Amino acid sequence: MVALDMTTDTVPGDAAVAQHKMTTRNVNVYYGAKQAIKDVSIDIDMDNVTAFIGPSGCGKSTFLRTLNRMNDTVASARVTGEITLDGEDIYASSMDVVQLRARVGMVFQKPNPFPKSIYDNIAYGPRIHGLATSKADLDVIVESSLRRAGLWDEVKDRLRDSGTALSGGQQQRLCIGRAIAVEPEVILMDEPCSALDPIATAKIEELIHALRGRYAIVIVTHNMQQAARVSQRTAFFHLGDLVEYGVTTDIFTNPREERTKDYITGRYG
Amino acid sequence: MTEPASAIAIATNMERKPTDWSASSKMRQRLASRNRTEKMFQFTGLAAVVLAVFFLAFLLWSMLADGVHGLSWQFLTGTDSSDPETVGIWGALKGSLLTMAVTLGLSFPIGVLTALYLEEFAPRNMWTDIVEVSINNLAAVPSIIFGLLGLAVFLNFMHLPRSAPVVGGLTLALMTMPVIVIAGRNAIKSVPPSIRDAARGIGASPVQVVFHHVLPLALPGIMTGTIIGMARALGETAPLLMIGMRAFIPTPPSSFTEPATVLPVQIFLWSDEISQGFVEKTSAAIIVLLAVLMTMNSIAIILRNRFEQKW
């Protein structure tokens, strides 16, 4: 089987992947004196959905937020180690954080549409990044983004209505549409279904399936069944450690680590 | 395990009798005394409201009774005069408008930018704490002190024209600015962080986050605070006496640098007149001032109700 070294040859039989979309090497995250993430090395690939699972406070969301430098806004947060996107160090001084976040989009736990129209929610990103040269261009971007977010048929007749008037599940799909409107390469999802009912959750999961391959998707989830359903790679975090990372089916059927097994089988969490 | 765990174990082992809810029980007596307290509080509250409304109504009624006959087209369009028959309020009203224009033009942009910087950009350290405390203190400084400051800085040091709306406006801007900063910061704080995250998450720069999202959402709150601050400045007398806006002005000011007076100072001056005819005119001027103030406050309330975001 595989050695404990999770950095090289991350997953058995995965050697064909020439270059990883994102890599992290020996990443530590501190909030003041408290260490939230300990020496985490992980690779994220384009054609996989990667799930981060683990009990509350294990650092999975913190780690996710280092991948697009959202932790920069937390004054006490400090990150060491190396994180790359297409081989470029994202914490290097030459990396423009605004551009990074256009390339690594994010969907949050609680749906957070702007209190603007559905159209303007989607169009905001393309507008600030100058992705559309004309109004017609922008219309195309809005329609295609809403279609890919699986929301077009529900909202096409009321694009001028406020995004906040939609239901929770629709709002979250609007937020996914808003993220993909700027054509990011990676989409980070921080427990995107935790505020949604099972039907809305199922729709988001379908959507993740549909988006797989076009974007590298990383999803943090509390729900192990969800991780099993949507992801091809799973990373299990516990108390800031990356305990185990591998092919999802292996993690769930044949975990190498005792702690993973205990968590999967519901001994704690 | 630790102490609390064992304490919980003991607590669950303790036996408790079921609560007695029969008619003669202690619980029923307690309920009766609670209901009495409720009634007493409601009555006291109502009495307080009646008292407050009574004095407001009395003030309005006495002003209207004294002053309503003094209101006429000639009064609304005329200027100050030594004869109560021909006296008018327009000069003072125009002086107030010019002064307020200067105050708003200075205190609004400076106040809003200060609030935005302190909330969204400034690092949290000792210096920003000092600035914050200073601004809060500035808002509590008696207005006469601002008058002295205006006299010392704008007249004696900068040699700006005495009695002019520009100096009055500058002085009142100093007074209004901290009010706008405080109202602005509160409005900015009430914009949920998730909106900032959303904008940052799709690659908006910090300035774009602020000007595309935070400021538009905070603006109704900022404007409400601004109008209330302006209403306070409009009713201010003391600091303007210090900078000479108490002169007898028989022609309305036609520019920011010409001598002028303002509504509350005009009321103060007329109330000092010996001639009986000025009693009515003073009340009439108060009616005009109250009408302007109530209009401003109504606008503030309408803005608040109309644009307030529910999160």
Automatic annotation (TrEMBL), chain B:
Identify the keywords attached in UniProt to this record, alphabetized. Answer: Cell membrane, Membrane, Transmembrane, Transmembrane helix, Transport
InterPro entries in the record, alphabetically?
A: DUF3333 (IPR024573), MetI-like (IPR000515), MetI-like_sf (IPR035906), Phosphate_PstA (IPR005672)
Q: What is this protein called?
A: Phosphate transport system permease protein PstA
Write out the GO cellular component annotations. plasma membrane
- Report the family membership: Belongs to the binding-protein-dependent transport system permease family. CysTW subfamily.
- GO terms under biological process: phosphate ion transmembrane transport
Q: Name one Pfam family in it.
A: DUF3333
Q: Which organism is it from?
A: Sphingobium subterraneum
User: Do you know which PANTHER family this protein is assigned to?
Assistant: PHOSPHATE TRANSPORT SYSTEM PERMEASE PROTEIN PSTA, PHOSPHATE TRANSPORT SYSTEM PERMEASE PROTEIN PSTA-RELATED
Q: Which domain of life is it from?
A: Bacteria
Segments crossing the lipid bilayer: 40-64, 97-118, 138-160, 166-188, 209-231, 284-303
In terms of PROSITE patterns, this protein maps to:
ABC_TM1
Compartment(s) of residence? Cell inner membrane; Cell membrane
GO MF annotation: an example? phosphate transmembrane transporter activity
Report the membrane topology from the UniProt record: Multi-pass membrane protein
Tell me the ranges covered by the ABC transmembrane type-1 domain, including all copies: 93-300
